[in-house]
Task: structure prediction
Amino acid sequence: MDSARDFSAALSIAQGQHWPLMGPEFGGFIHSGPIWFYLLAVPLLSGSLWLSAFMIGLLAGLKFLLAFYLGKAWFNRRFAVLWSACFLLPGWHSINTFIPGHINVIDTLVLAFVASLWQFNQSKHIGWFYLSGLLLALAMHAHMTALIAGVFYLPILWHMRHHLRFWHVFVAGLLFLVPFVPYMVSQWLDGMGDWIRWQALSREVDQARRGLSGVDASFLSAFSGNLQALMVGGLQRMQGFVASVWPTAGIVFWVLLSSLVALAVGYWGYSLLTKKGFRPLQTKVFITAGALLLIGLAMITVLRSFTPFYMLFVLTPLLTFIWAWCLSLGGQLPHTLTVLSVSVLLVLGALPVAALQKAVYDGQVHLGPLGNVRQAVNTDWQTDNNTLDALTVSQVDDWATFLCRQNSQVHGPGAALLDLLSALPVKLVCPDNPVLLGGKPQAGYHQYLLMHRSFWAQSDRHPNQWITPAWGVSENIELINSHAALQAAEFDDYVHPPRSLRQKQPMQTVHKSFQSNHDSLVVVSHLLPFYTANNIKAVTANGHKVKKLMANIGNSLYYCAACEPGAVTWDFTLQSNDPAALDIIILKKHDP
Result:
C-alpha cells in the first residue's frame, strides 16, 4: 500500500497533475518532504513502473559499495567484503528487499552519512561536514528513525572540536533543513495539520494498537524483547517463511546458518589457542559498534509501545557490521575462509528471494505478524490463512493492458488487491477509464473474475485467459451482489490508509441464499479486508456442510463435492460490519 501511494504521487507529478509539498507519511502523524516523490517521478516519465523499481534497486544496492569502502578504511579488504556480504544474511531487513519503497534506501543513506563524517575526520575538509547534514536529512526521508544515526555526530564533534566553529554547525543545520522546506511551507499553509493531528490521535492510536500488539509493560521487558527480535527473531521468521514455501530450502537454511556459526566459533577457538587474540583497535571499534546498536535500539523502543519490523531497518548497518566482526574476528579471517563465508552468505541471501518468487507465482505470501516484532507467533502461522495475493512490478503492465482494453469491473481476489494499490496499474495506462471493484453489474462494464494461480490450482479448472503467469481471469461468472460497485481508494495526505475513515456499521449477521449448478464453484471475497470485518461462519450446499478449497485473508473458494447433479442451493451465514464490501461470485467448474 505504501509503495502504491508513493508511485501514485510520483505518477501524478510525471503526468503534470499534482505538485505535492509533502512526502510519505510516517507513523500516522508526520510527513517528510516530497523529494522522494519527485525522484520517483523521473523514471515514471517513461510510463514504466519497472524502471522506477530498477532505480530504487540501484540506489539500495549502493549500500554494498559503501560498506566495502568503510570496511576497507577501518579494517582491511577481507573485512570489507564480508561486511558487504552480511547484508545478505536473512532477517527483518530481508523484507525490505521484497517491496519497492522509500525505506529501501535507508541503509545506503545511513552509510553515506557515516562515510561523509569519516571523510571529514580524515581530510578535515569542512565540505564533508556540510554534506553530512544534507545526507542525514535525506536518510530521514527514507524513514524518520534515521535520526538515530545522528549519534555519530557526538564523537566527531568531540574529536574535531578544534577544527569546527559554530557557523560550521549552523551551515550543516541549514542544509539538514533544506529537504524539509516544502513540507514546512505546506504545514504553514494547512494550519499545522500534522501537529494538530498528532495531538488528537497519538494517544488514541497508541492505545488502540496496544491491545493488538502484545505490548510489554516495562521498558526493560520491551527492550529485551526487541533485542531478541533483532538478533534472532528476524532469522527465525525468514527461515519459517522459506520452509513454508519450500521445505527443503528451509532445511538448507539451517544447515548453512549452522555451518557459518561453526566456522566463526572454530576460528575464535583457533585464535585463542594460537594466542592471536584480539587486536586492541579492532576490539575497541567492535565495542563501540555494540554500544551504538544498544543505544539505537533503546531509542527505538521508547518511540512507541510497539515496534513494527521496519523500525529496525535503521540498525541494519550496525547489525551487519557486528556480524562481520564476529565472523572474522575484526578482519583476521584468512582469505580462503572469507571466500567460503561469503559464498555461504550469498546462498543464504538467495533463499528468501527464491521462496518469495515461488510464493508469488505458485502460492501465497505470508510473513507472519509484522506490527510488533515482540509479538509471539502461533506455531502454525505459516498455514493460518492470513496470507495475501501478490502482484509483482513485472506483472503490472500486463494487468494494465488487459484492464484498459474496455470498461472493466473486477471481482474476486484481484479486486481487493486493486483497491490496496489504488488501481495503480490502470492509472499508468488509462487514468481516465476507472476500474470498478465488486458489486452488482454496472451497465457498460465487462465483468471479470480475477484470481491468483493458487486459487485456480484448487478449482480443477482453467481461467479463460492467463493475463500473467500468476493471474487468470474468467468471464463465465454470475454475481450474487446487491450493492453498488466500489471505486478504488484514492490516497490522501492526511488519511492513510485511505479507507481508514470509511463508515462501519455494527456487526450484523448476514444470510445469503442462492442457487447454482452442481458443477459450480463459489468465490466469496472481502474487498476491504484491512478496513472492515466480514467473517464466514457457516456454509451449506443442499444441506451439506462445505469446506473451503482455498482461502487467504480476504478470499475463500468453495465447491460442493457431495452434491448430486442438478440445482444446488447454497446458504452462507456471515458476520459483517460492512456488507457492501462482500463480493460473491459463481463460476462453472468447467467452461462450456
